[in-house]
Design a protein that fits this description.
The complex is a heterodimer of chains A (424) and B (266). Chain A has 14 helices and 14 strands. By secondary structure, chain A is α+β, with helices and mostly antiparallel strands. Chain A is globular and about 70 Å long. In chain A, 57% of the residues are buried. With 266 residues, chain B is of the alpha/beta class. In chain B, strand 1 and strand 2 form a beta hairpin. The model of chain B has no long low-confidence stretch (mean pLDDT 92). Classes of the chains: A alpha+beta (424), B alpha/beta (266).
């Protein structure tokens, strides 16, 4: 059957920020599919100009309400790179644990609150409180654990307070930290239940050959700093990030777009997993095999499952991190900072992909130039290409109207886009 | 879902509430979902009819509207006026909605330079970042960057049962002292605790990070004396201005303090 249909989604729901989907199908053929970002810019890169270095992590964390910890850590890393500060092992481990809990919190939020309602045929998580209370309570337990540990290390779950250039303003109480080991072990059981739930969901079988970009792990699955890689074989060091992101402006979006070897590339959980599969926690690898997920998967809907796999990874690794930290004799929480002229880049794997902050400083440590490249910004072009391919394929098979609209919405949601962050 | 609530034996009316966001990080709305312990209770108190970040299929029939973010574009002015027209009570949620938040830092610069710095030659529509009350009447302000979830819940209960809502008149310093913290000035950290409105339980100073004034001025705060004291502790004027101008609650005073013209300013 040759179908005609128009899909017009204004301000897509259950994503962070404002984006629109438009699809036009005539006689079963795709005329147009477009992913438009209409978010208002907030101009963080201009705001920072002239500010002293210590303002940057505090202000830049406010780019995003979901991954404020990742932004704060990327900002701090950029400054430390510029000033030649190497954080102590204690600081590195605490930052990684904090980062892991943000990843867990964000992935759980996305899996249960934003993605699951589509598979359970509901508009939001709210009706599930009545119909599936065990599911909602489990989601709450997992999210609360992650957020509570963020409070302990970062001072606050959202817009952290203790994270500063050189280390932390204050260190966590070791007894309280030790108590989280038990809760993390219990969380693994909750994650097993989560995996069982997601096993019951029908993940759309759609693939489009894609280039995947992420940090390159050496002896551990990468999160904070290191070399950059793409699945097409591009390898760059952190300071060459601009050759990886190649940002440009487009009329349909207030967010910039990116490209590398092809018309677009993807970052995020699936990209990290595709590029660093062997470095995942064994428990996480087992879950991935259960879902038939391994490198290189080109199905964007599998990003949901990659997030689930990463949730296992961060939970498992966090237990070891706590073991190491409670055996550490605390050193001073922070190192002294001596500003100097130069540029620093901080690349951090945040829940939605590789985030870069880059600052140029004058000799007094004031910012001359600021550049932030956001994961969702790097994904927009890929979402656009996926959306065109998805619409063309399913329309040719006769799918239309609400079914096509829902599938297109689910595609965009799979990327877990953080739109206001991408525009910043 | 938890049972319907009653207060003094009278069933509590469940107001229909909606959440909207303008220019913001959407973190304040997220703080509501970050209340894992009490979210089901919270949801039993109100009927959420519109919350785009978390639900599909909202309606425009609401009584209380929470609006996060500041106003920076023409379409946001229209959306805000529309919400104001429909809501009995309009609540400004967080520092961006109350004072312009970090977004208003761009107002220090020439708007054309700001656009060019970020977008080069691509045309972008953006106005001065403004708090909601510059455009519409605001009935209630919930302060903070981000909002403090405990405080919001207290306010929600009072809204639902029709009790008067009071925000502390005293400064963060009072809460900080009550929490037994060492004064940050003695630790060499700048802090706006003495002049910033309390209600956050001195969240930042509890972690030995100085206050940046995200909740705006406490009543009768002596800003001039605060500056004198901070200078006496050895903090530079630049550091004092950085703190005062960050979230918009003190930005007028901060610009008065600035004696050297900012590069790229209008």
């Amino acid at each position: 059957m040759k179908i005609n249909c128009d899909v017009n989604v204004h301000h897509l729901t259950r994503v962070e920020g404002h984006g629109n989907i438009r699809i036009t199908i005539r006689d079963g053929k795709l005329i147009e599919a477009s992913w438009e970002v209409v978010e208002t810019p907030r101009f963080f890169e201009a705001i920072l100009v002239g500010k002293k270095w210590d303002n940057a992590p505090w202000i830049c964390g406010r780019i995003c309400g979901i991954c404020s910890i990742g932004h704060t850590l990327a900002s701090i890393r950029a400054i430390e790179q510029a000033f030649g500060i190497v954080p102590s092992r204690q600081t590195q481990r605490l930052r990684l644990l904090l980062k892991h809990m943000e990843t867990l919190q964000s992935h759980i939020l996305h899996l249960y609150f934003l993605a699951a309602p589509d598979f359970l045929n509901e508009g939001s998580v709210f009706p599930l409180i009545g119909s599936h209370p065990d599911v909602v309570l489990r989601a709450m337990r997992l999210k609360k654990l992650a957020n509570d540990l963020c409070d302990l290390i970062g001072g606050r779950r959202l817009h952290p307070t203790t994270t500063v250039v050189g280390g932390f303003t204050m260190l966590p109480d070791k007894k309280i930290l030790a108590g989280f080991k038990e809760r993390l072990s219990a969380a693994v059981d909750d994650l097993m239940e989560t995996a069982r739930l997601f096993k019951t969901f029908q993940i759309p079988d759609f693939s489009r050959e894609t280039e995947f970009v992420s940090l390159k792990g050496v002896d551990a699955y990468p999160f904070i700093g290191g070399d950059l890689m793409s699945s097409d074989g591009v390898l760059k060091n952190e300071s060459q990030y601009r050759q990886m992101t190649n940002e440009y402006t487009v009329p349909q979006s207030t967010s910039k777009w990116s490209r590398l070897s092809r018309g677009s590339f993807a970052v995020g959980a699936l990209a990290r997993l595709n590029n660093n599969f062997g470095l995942l926690h064994p428990m996480a690898r087992d879950i991935a095999s259960d879902f038939g997920l391994g490198p290189v998967s080109h199905n964007p809907f599998m990003n949901n499952i990659a997030q689930l796999v990463e949730a296992f990874h961060v939970a498992g690794e966090s237990i070891s991190l706590i073991d190491e930290l409670i055996d550490t004799c605390w050193e001073a929480p922070r190192q002294p900072v001596a500003p100097r002229e130069g540029r620093g880049v901080g690349a951090v794997e945040v829940p939605r992909g590789t985030l870069y902050h880059c600052y140029d400083f004058d000799e007094t440590g004031h910012i001359i130039k600021c550049d932030c490249v956001i994961p969702t910004g790097q994904n927009h072009a890929n979402i656009q290409h996926d959306l065109s391919a998805l619409s063309a394929r399913y329309a040719s098979e006769g799918m239309k109207d609400r079914d096509l609209e829902l599938l297109a919405e689910m595609l965009v949601r799979s990327y877990d886009p953080c739109i206001s962050c991408s525009v910043h | 879902m938890a049972a319907a609530r009653s207060f003094l034996g009278v069933p509590v009316y469940k107001p229909r509430v909606a959440f909207f966001e303008l220019s913001s990080c959407e973190g304040c709305q997220l703080q509501l979902l970050n209340n894992e312990d009490t979210l089901p209770d919270f949801l039993s108190l109100v009927e959420v009819v519109n919350f785009r970040e978390a639900m599909t299929g909202g309606t425009d029939d609401y009584e209380i509207a929470f609006v996060e973010g500041s106003v920076t574009r023409g379409d946001e002015i229209e959306r805000l006026r529309e919400v104001r027209g429909k809501a009995k009570t309009l609540v400004a949620l967080g520092s961006c909605a109350c004072f312009g938040g970090v977004n208003q830092l761009k107002n220090r610069f020439d708007p054309d330079w700001v656009k060019k710095e970020v977008y080069g030659d691509r045309q972008v529509e953006s106005e001065r970042a403004k708090p909601l009350e510059d455009i519409v009447t605001v009935d209630l302000r919930i302060l903070g960057c981000p909002i403090n979830k405990k405080e919001v819940e207290g306010i929600m209960v009072n809204l639902a049962i029709g009790k008067e809502i009071k925000t502390p008149k005293y400064p963060v310093c009072m809460e900080c002292k009550a929490n037994g913290n060492t004064c940050l000035f003695d630790l060499g950290e700048p802090c706006l605790g003495p002049i910033t409105r309390a209600g956050c339980n001195s969240c930042c100073p509890n972690g030995r990070a100085g206050c940046w004034g995200c909740r705006g001025p406490a009543e009768d705060g002596n800003l001039a004396q605060m500056t004198v004291i901070m200078e006496r502790y050895g903090f530079s004027k630049e550091t004092i201005i950085d703190r005062l101008e960050c979230f918009g609650g003190f930005s007028d005073y901060a610009s008065q303090l600035r004696t050297i013209k900012l590069k790229n300013s209008s």
